[in-house]
Amino acid sequence: MSSRTRALVTIVATLTLIVGAGAAAADDPPKVQEQFLIEVPPGQRLVVTPSFSAGFENEIIVTVHQNGHVAARMSNFGERGVWRSPPNTTDAVLVYRITSRHRAARSSWIANQGTRRRVKKPDGSFVERCAFEDSTDGDYDDAVAELRFEPAVPGSR
Ligand SMILES: [Ca+2]
Predict the structure, then answer these.
(1) pTM score of the predicted model
(2) What residues does each domain of the chain span?
(3) What is the whole-number distance in angstroms between the Cα of residue 132 and the centre of ligand 1?
(4) Average pLDDT, stretch 79-105?
(5) DSSP state for residue 82 in the 8-state scheme
(6) For the structural domain made of 35-151, what CATH number should be given?
(7) How many Å lie between the centroid of ligand 1 and the Cα of residue 49?
(8) Cα of 135 to ligand 1 centre, how many Å?
(9) pLDDT number for residue 153
(10) Distance, CA 53 to ligand 1 centroid (Å)?
(11) Can you give 18-44 as a three-state secondary structure string?
(12) 3-state class (DSSP) for residue 135
């Protein structure tokens, strides 16, 4: 092998390595889990905007992680309004747990699997979503909790 051929082989091998690494990262499936812990820093509040695209009854449930208190339930069969947490007026991070579940024909509830994603919107801004799947098609739009944080105005609720 000439030195020129050897150099070429090295370049091709390096390029393959780079392309291979990129493809592996892109093909990594999103991490799927049943619950998401959302940290609300002092001076902030959490705003959850639900959306649904489902035939099954779907719920999004927001729980205070520290004590298990259910703070909000949103459903495609019921309450679908935007939920704002109380302002975090403490010095500590408050943690909310977001889960989702579905049921057909008022039978047993089944936990949804979801992913937490950062999504680019048409206006170029980014938004974070907990996106849940109630079946097997993997579109993760059956129940979606869009997350935002707002500065807490002192004394407001
Ligand atoms: Ca689906």
Answers:
(1) 0.78
(2) 1-30, 35-151
(3) 8
(4) 96
(5) -
(6) 2.60.120.400
(7) 19
(8) 5
(9) 72
(10) 8
(11) HHHHHHHHHHCCCCCECEEEEEECCCE
(12) coil
